[in-house]
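REVIEWER CHECKLIST
Item 1: Sequence provided? yes
Item 2: Single chain? yes
Item 3: Sequence as submitted:
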Amino acid sequence: MDIELRHQPDSAIARVVLDAHEELVAEAGCMIAMSGGINASTTLRQGKGGGILGGLKRLVGGESLFLSVFHSPVADSEIFLAPKLLGDILLYNMNGHELVVQATSYLASASGVDIDLGFQGFKSLFSGESIFWLTISGYGSLLLNSFGAIYEVPVRGEYIVDTGHIVAFEKSLTFEITKAGSSWIGAFLGGEGLICRFQGEGKVYCQTHNPGAFGFQVGSQLPPR
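Item 4: Structure as written out by the authors:
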């Protein structure tokens, strides 16, 4: 499988070239175009993170109930994928460890990558984001999408990120949700709200825009129904 990212960071698309008998699993509805010989199907996927239970868990986490599977019977078949929102795509190589991914940030992966729903504890309940995050494991290429550009932060010790700007983080990191300032009132009046305080060693992937804040800003300008 060969993956090329184009038009980064604001309108990114991914061109994936598949070998013979290779499969790509993707979020339903993200395909733009593909070679005529590729066989496309919709599935709940079996195995870890699959089946009816896995599909319902992804639905709770903000993902689609179904996944699309693209199978190439011949070599050099191509498929183009894109996020639903304007933004970037991250190509991440899974090599047996676990990655925690914000709901709605999963785009596609190789068939050897497992998708499951991880409960990140009640501390996530107060973050303003999803309580349930996807836990990605296994081996192979993983594509994540964002709202705005994605940038990588290597963490060694402590690092703080606004909760609405987190795309994913390696599970070697621990985290806690807390206020941005010295007081809760000051944190919210200052517009910063809640932050995620990471500890340990690993990587955090952030997006430049906050979908929740954007939706609030745009929604406030729309006429009442």
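Item 5: Key structural point noted by reviewer: DSSP finds three helices and 16 strands in the chain.
Item 6: Recommendation: ____
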